[in-house]
Amino acid sequence: MRKILFYILILWFMCTKVFSSPTTKSIEDIVSEFSENTHDNDNADDNNSIADFLYKAAENPMNLNEINREYLEQFPFLNETQIENLLEYRFDYGDFQSIYELSLIKNFDDETISNCLPFLIVYAKADLEKVSLKNIFKFAKHRITIRADYGFPQKKGYTNGAYLGKAWASYFKYAFTHKNASIAVSMDKDAGEPFDWKYNKGFDFYSGHISIKDIKHCKLMIIGDFKANFGQGLIYKSNSYHINSTDLAALCQRQDGFQPFFSVSEQGFLRGFATTLQFNKIQLSAFASHTQYNSENYHRTISSFIKKNTNNSYSLGFNALYRHKFFKIGSSFCYEFLSKKINVGLDYRAKIKRFYIAGEFAVNEKGGFATINHINFLMNEKLSFSALYRYYDLNYNSTYGCAYSESGLNDEQGLLIGFEIRPFRYWKISAFADVFAFKSFKYQIKQPSEGFKTFCQLIYTPNNNHYILLRYNCKQMSVNDNDDNLSHTQTVTNYRKHSLKFTYQAKLSDFFTFQTGAQSNIYIKNSNIDYAWLLYMDFNYIFIKFPLQISLKCAFFDVPLYENRIYCYEKDVLFAYSSPSYSGQGFRNCLMLKYMPSAQWSIYIKSALNFYTDRETIASANEEIIGNKKIDLRLLVSFKF
After folding, report:
1. How would residue 212 be classed by pLDDT, with cut points 50, 70 and 90?
2. Which of 47-61, 394-408, 521-535 is the least confident region?
């Protein structure tokens, strides 16, 4: 029966000429589309983490006949239903014979398959090489990446001597990757930070790790820097990209385990030793960590160096997980030695017919309680409903937690309800409403308050060559009324922000892609109304007979109020994610060249010009630039072998 299905599939492909569609996308295109499916924000660290994972996964494609749920859950473009359907298909019919067999799986459309092609391959299990130290070094891949950034005109901090370093930033990373092991060393120096041995030991930040996995009962072992993700994020969560996803099903955190840390972000990681052991359906994980978190991200001045590495954290953690085909249940524990903080939690996730449920309950040493629960009901292949409830006690806090919230895992109660519908082929509509309340003071809110968010999005993809997105957001929250300067007591008022986004992308040929879009915000506070808008055009061309790719973006904006700023994604160099904020009035031009003289070498050059028409100086304090123009240059060279 299996062979008959396979031959029918091949015949169907030949008759309909499907071998030309779906097409394999570039990693840059997948990262770009991922950015469109997240809420606009400035949380670039998490998006950089996703970009790092996608680039690494593309260099080491996994066998579709061996891949497990945990690995599939790391891909942002796969939802829980698709993962479940893929695993059920392999269980029912056995090994895949072709990567294009994905088209026989429910909910796998051409778009999803195109996203999967760079990361998955198909070969028989018997062809797998034996895991050994010799084979790891034989089949491993190496990559060296060097990046340099420079901006001008000079900022005030360089001319008045406040900044100890030069106006250039540098980045170096060596990565050794294999499906069963990885070694990475990263070094980073931001602009203005000194590159010397008086204040820094060369670079300002160092990161590295050694990891092995899938060796008998040892599922994973890491020495160095790593990320921890367990449960729904009340105790351990290193990434928050799922919080910003527009896919309602993705609001449920689904990753459980440790991951090597490849980024140069100075936040969101643990440093020490971590291991995971697998015994049939039981998974045991433990770690010991010593991290030094900084109160400031940049160390450019003498005062910032005084605060550097002053926040030490010594911690131990443990997680036990039982995984069944239809459910999983786990328990997490964390103890911090210096602060004496204790967090204990119980989490679950299950599939009951058409229902997917997940949640976590946690307490800390002060008796503070927190819970988050998510349910997704798949009525049919075209319609699904989601609901998410969270309650975080005033006394609850977690150093390493990052669950869905509006204002952190402390003093918040909220309910989100939404749906996703595919009324016609190629059409997808999603919407939700989220209401929340705070019982005590919050940042810039000097009294108990409440708020709400609404979201609606339409996506139309008639084929792989055209993509249309239309999105509307509305958010209302309380905020301190700073306009009342005559009063000795702080008053609080409400503000409401409406956001509208339109994106159209067309692939006019295999070598030329065009994208245009518009974004508009309306910010209402008291009797004041502020309007903001942004228009942009994006061109991408690949030369036929020359290994060069050109990307050009032109954006025009009018954003009078900083609180009403607009974020807009733009293509960046390898292993980088860029979503700059726009405020003021003017335009921004961005040009990027990607030159690949061989399969081993990649050279990126990016330049960005900001021109403001409403000011004679840019920014303030030590960041002030005299004039209304700012230019940023970036060069990256990558060599893999």
Report:
1. very high
2. 47-61
Q: Global pTM? A: 0.85
How many whole angstroms separate alpha carbon 223 and alpha carbon 273? 5
Task: Give the side-chain half-sphere CA count within 13 A for 231.
Answer: 30
Contact 263, 186 (CB under 8 A): yes
Q: What gap in Å lies between CA 120 and CA 82, rounded to an integer? A: 15
Q: Each residue of 540-594: pLDDT tens digit?
A: 999 988 999 999 999 999 999 998 999 998 888 888 878 899 999 999 999 999 9
Backbone CA torsion sign across 23, 24, 26, 32: positive
Question: How many beta carbons lie within 10 A of that of residue 598, not counting itself?
Answer: 8
Given a contact cutoff of 8 angstroms between Cβ atoms, the answer to whether 607 and 626 are in contact is no
DSSP string, 215-239: ETTEEEEEEEEEEEE-TTSSS--S-
CB neighbours of 98 closer than 8 A, spacing ≥ 6?
Answer: 6, 9, 10, 122
Q: From residue 61, give the alpha-carbon distance in Å to each of 55, 65, 112, 597, 598.
A: 10, 12, 16, 23, 20
The confidence score (pLDDT) of residue 638 equals 94
| Partners of residue 349 on adjacent β-strands | 328, 358
d(CA 320, CA 131): 26
d(CA 617, CA 347): 52
If you write DSSP's letter for every residue of 590-610 in order, what string do you get?
EEEEEE-SSSSEEEEEEEEEE
Letter for the amino acid at 633? L
Task: Report residue 191 as tokens.
Answer: 């602009």
Q: Is 65 helix (H, G, I), strand (E, B) or coil?
A: coil
pLDDT in tens, 55-109: 778 877 888 888 888 788 888 788 777 888 888 888 888 888 888 888 888 888 7
Whole-angstrom Cα Rg for the chain:
25
Q: Between residues 90 and 268, which one has the greater pLDDT?
A: 90
Burial class of residue 196 in the structure, from the number of CB atoms within 10 Å of its CB (0-12 exposed, 13-18 middle, 19+ buried)? exposed
Residue tagged 């004041």 (tokens): 528
- 506: region left, alpha or beta (phi > 0 left; psi from -120 to 50 alpha): beta
pLDDT (0 to 100) of residue 47:
62
CB–CB of 261/209 below 8 Å?
yes
Q: Give residue 12's pLDDT.
A: 42
Structure tokens at 596: 């690949």
Q: Give the number of other Cβ atoms within 10 Å of residue 346's Cβ.
A: 16
**In angstroms, rounded to a whole number, what is the distance separating the alpha carbons of residues 212 and 276?**
11
- The single residue listed with the structure tokens 């062979």 is 3
Q: CB of 463 within 8 A of CB of 485?
A: no
Tokens at 506, concatenated: 């067309």
